[in-house]
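Sample A.
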Amino acid sequence: MKTSLLLILFASPFLSAGEFSPGNIPADAQWYLHADVEKLRDTTMGKTIINAAKKEHGQTLSDAEIFLGFDLIRDVADVSLFGNGKHDNAAFIIQGKINRRHLESMIVDADQYQSNLYQGEKIHSWRDKGKGQNAAFHGDTLVVVSEQPELIMLTLDVLAKRKPHLESDKKIPGSSVMMGTANIEALDLPVDKGSKMLKKAQSLSASLTEVDNHLRANFVVSTKEEKTATRLQKIAEGLVAFGMMAEPDLEELNIEHGSSVTGNQVSMHLTIPVEEALAILGRIK
């Protein structure tokens, strides 16, 4: 049970993240996801989500705080998830008041625990439900966790400046509360029609920002050819039109959307009042 509960750390990154730090992520990461809760807490959407989480999952959050030794919403400052493109190869980087001593004591008690030194830093390993888990601390405020020990070592190398880190993505607004990028060409995707269509894109960047009580989602897709970007733009516009036709209620909402093509890049955005976005989420739930 202890090893399973340890993974609760990674079940709520969008409720427990801080300022995105590309300096923590390896330069050769092929995708990443991040949510900035320090900004999210100040938004209408963030306040509503956090209040709902406390109301509906208050006991779970309290239990998690007792078990982990810190508050997932209040104490965690930064959470990022990244991968090397291979299937199921990913790592979490978590920063904040994470109570390292308490977490390490739990990890040491986990099933089949062992540890190894890498460049003077300890890598903890254990088994959970038949799968290997690995973790390492960098100082008292950062922990990286992954099923792949090589991703742990790579992250430690980046943190120690032995290897280069990811550069900031200029396509992502600095005010974003959620963001992510993916190098589509480098991803190990299944062979099916959907993946073949996705492979026509080279890369994807996405972000979510709240401004004046409106949520704005931005997407930038890079393709190999300009004609592919134009086709993707038409597909995206068609999907939006189809969605509104299939769900008549959407036509009554104040949704503003648009797209443009510049060379081999297609940029898309969708803006909706926060109140209406929350109403949609409520219906989906």
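Sample B.
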Amino acid sequence: MTQQIQKINSQFFNNRLISGFALLLIAIIFASILGSGVYGYGNDWYAAYHKHNLGWGGPWDRLGYIISTLSIGGVHIGVHLVSFILSFSAGLLIREHLRFKESYSLIYFVLIYIVAIHTWPIIMSTSNGMRQGLTMSFVFIGFVAMSRKKYYWMLLFFIIAMLTHKSGRLLVLIVAFAPIINSLLAGHSHSSKAILNFLIGTFLFVSAYFVADIIGLNEKGEPSKIIGLDFRFAFIFFAGIYVFLSFLFKGLTDNPFNLSLYYFSFVAPSLVMNGLNYEYERLGMMMLIPYILCFGTLLKKSSYQIYLFTCFLLLFLLTIVTGMFASLK
């Protein structure tokens, strides 16, 4: 029995080591291709990010500009760096979920990973919305640290996420809240957790709505405009389904990562009620991949593999059909 356990641990370690190498290699290749403009660049690149070593922004988002426009010796490497961080962080998060579901096939991971980094949340953040992409990436890495109960590393990456874009402050406040509540409710039954989490979520929704209004988060006082297609209602639908299913399946709230999505499903829609439509859609984009992964935890191993591949394939096709690749020039 001891030898069998050692063999399983050894196989897992080797798989993790090999998949880590594959992840790193793919991220480097992806960054090289995207950074070189093979797919083209987004509008934000031509508007600002093509410039060198920008020091724009305040103390809460200057780091995002610094990384995105980093240049050394007159060579712009920021776009390469952002593309690498985006793809690497997404790969880490996907691999962590595959490990959790014991779907640790290297070929399957590589296939899912390559498709996923060519979908809207990743590809549109490599040179368009680069700072939001950085925030999303460091939150993803923080999620991985959270799932491994490395809370000091989680806090470090969440702090970096807060310093790359102003949206990071709201996003981190939501997700960093989850491990505390998860610990406090550890001994409760599923029905008790479902009710308590719903009450907490409702309180967070109401609080977020009034706080955003009081501090004047919507500075212009009028609804912000959606750029391109409007996905607000799709994101609101995902949030509602997630909350509804949490009453039926304890897996959607039984760990800090999933609970983060649960509270996000309450807080984020409050932005829409304050007229922050564009901001809500960007947050929805950042959390789209975590939503896909979390819904998959409800399925058995074989169904989960089919579900995950289908979701990322459909998201990839949506990215093409909606003209997002075509918008890169």
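B remarks: The longest strand covers residues 71-72. Residues 14-165+300-329 form one domain.
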